[in-house]
């Protein structure tokens, strides 16, 4: 069975965690989901102190952010992300209200600043008539040094296990390199005895980010093994100099290269990479607890265990969804990927942001009934609430919306 995560605008976040239920009234039977304390609540003002393009095509730009209050920044876990609340007042009527987007921290913790690296998202190739990505283009075109942005504290469950000595394999596809940069630098700095393999998959040198940094790190740290993999090398890309392999980062390549023994895998990339590599690793026999992943974009990941759990948590009989504030009761037909899509399709207004369980914008009180998540969301909702963007009902539900 194929499980599909449909995320319209952003990143589909799949974790190895099993399907997690949520119910209106937490009970002793409800699995405990640890709520990670955030470094600050709500948003904090950050000033952009520097911006740098990271690739020759200038499609990936790093933004360095220092807190306006001047206080030292708390550390974060390598792989976590920041959530931005953007006021796009001058970009047209459609964007008058704040929008919320998540961006991974792309460097190791520094008490003076954070760094995120943002790829410009164009309109889909087959729909050039659609507007280009709102947030990423706003960052590239409007956000300048000196500007102040509202930022929520680092969060997310996709982060390096920095206590483990097991060799680590980082696989970054395209802009999925960002959390890998943070993990890599933390690993090299904090665990100098730990072997780290970095596989960076991308089209060609035009879109290669952090090239000089990665090459310098690899030559300074013998325990780091850098493998750059181009799927479409450009005419002047030289094998051995610019890239080590032509093709894709796949199991065949990993099997050929990695030494025998256990490894911890961290994978972040576009849908095609996630849809093949993650299930392949599990089929190869890598224990699920050693496969960590986060997908940037819509992804369909074939995970036998999660598929079976999702199937067993699907309601056996038709269920109803009641939106108490809107006064509407509607039959859930299972056609929508989640309750946020369902609400929007029926004209029920709900806040939303990342559409992938990361930012918490769509957190809604679950007054009655139960929902399930295919995987544990990054944002931990308070008990008795749920995240509409990744939740599906498993019984009749009443939502405060
Ligand atoms: C945990 C997490 C970490 C992330 N880390 C990073 C990171 O480090 N770097 C990074 O660059 N991104 C990252 N992202 C992705 C980022 O959050 C945004 O999703 C991304 O920048 C796109 O947002 P946008 O507002 O630019 O595009 P959106 O406005 O959301 O548009 C997305 C796409 O939809 C198209 N579109 C517009 N209208 C329609 C329509 N009517 N129908 C169909 N399609 C339409 C747009 O043209 C565009 O191609 C991360 C996401 C998450 C959840």
Give a description of the structure.
It is a single chain. With 401 residues, this protein is α/β, with parallel strands linked by helices. It folds into three domains: 43-155, Translation factors (Elongation Factor Tu (Ef-tu), domain 3, Beta Barrel), CATH 2.40.30; 168-307, Rossmann fold (3-Layer(aba) Sandwich); 315-401, Ubiquitin-like (UB roll) (Roll), CATH 3.10.20. The protein has seven helices and 22 strands. The chain has helices at 134-141, 177-190, 211-220, 251-257, 271-284, 304-313, 339-345; strands at 3-5, 20-23, 43-53, 60-67, 81-86, 99-104, 114-119, 148-155, 168-173, 196-202, 224-230, 245-246, 264-269, 291-295, 299-301, 319-323, 328-332, 363-368, 370-373, 385-387, 391-393, 397-399. The protein has a six-stranded antiparallel sheet with strand order 6-5-8-3-4-7. A six-stranded parallel sheet has the order 12-11-10-9-13-14, with helices on both faces. A hairpin with a 6-residue loop joins strand 3 (43-53) and strand 4. Mean pLDDT is 87; it is low at 1-19 and 26-34. The structure holds flavin-adenine dinucleotide. Flavin-adenine dinucleotide binds at residues 9-11, 13, 81, 101-104, 116-119, 121, 123-124, 130-137, 156, 175, 178, 296, 354, 356, 358.
């Amino acid at each position: 069975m194929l499980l599909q995560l449909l995320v319209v605008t952003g990143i589909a976040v799949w974790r190895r965690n099993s399907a997690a239920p949520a119910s209106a009234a937490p009970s002793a039977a409800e699995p405990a989901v640890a709520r990670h304390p955030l470094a600050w609540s709500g948003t904090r003002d950050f000033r952009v102190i520097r911006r740098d393009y990271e690739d020759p095509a200038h499609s990936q730009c790093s933004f360095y952010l220092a807190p306006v209050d001047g206080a030292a920044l708390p550390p974060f876990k390598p792989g976590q992300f920041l959530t931005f609340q953007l006021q796009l007042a001058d970009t047209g009527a459609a964007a008058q209200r704040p929008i919320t987007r998540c961006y991974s921290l792309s460097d190791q913790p520094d008490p003076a600043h954070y760094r995120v690296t943002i790829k410009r998202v164009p309109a889909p190739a087959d729909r050039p008539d659609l507007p280009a990505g709102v947030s990423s283009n706003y960052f590239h075109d409007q956000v300048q040094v000196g500007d102040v942005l509202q930022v929520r504290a680092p969060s997310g469950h996709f982060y390096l296990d920095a206590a483990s000595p097991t060799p680590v394999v980082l696989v970054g596809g395209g802009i999925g390199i960002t959390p890998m940069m943070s993990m890599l630098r933390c690993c090299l700095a904090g665990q100098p005895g730990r072997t780290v393999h970095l596989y960076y998959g991308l089209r060609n040198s035009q879109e290669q980010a952090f090239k000089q940094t990665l090459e310098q790190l690899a030559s300074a740290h013998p325990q780091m093994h850098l493998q750059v993999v181009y799927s479409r090398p450009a005419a002047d890309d030289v094998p051995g100099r610019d890239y080590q392999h032509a093709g894709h980062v796949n199991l065949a390549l990993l099997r050929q290269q990695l030494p025998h023994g256990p490894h911890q895998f961290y994978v972040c990339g576009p849908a095609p990479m996630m849809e093949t590599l993650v299930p392949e690793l599990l089929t190869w026999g890598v224990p699920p607890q050693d496969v960590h992943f986060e997908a940037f974009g819509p992804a369909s990941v074939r995970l036998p265990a999660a598929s079976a759990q999702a199937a067993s948590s699907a309601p056996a009989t038709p269920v109803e969804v009641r939106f108490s504030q809107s006064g509407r009761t509607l039959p859930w037909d299972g056609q929508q990927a989640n309750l946020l899509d369902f609400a929007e399709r029926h004209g029920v207004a709900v806040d939303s942001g990342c559409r992938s369980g990361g930012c918490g914008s769509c957190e809604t009180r679950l007054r009655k009934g139960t929902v399930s998540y295919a995987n544990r969301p990054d944002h931990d909702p308070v008990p008795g609430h749920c995240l509409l963007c990744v939740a599906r009902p498993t019984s009749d539900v009443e939502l405060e919306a």
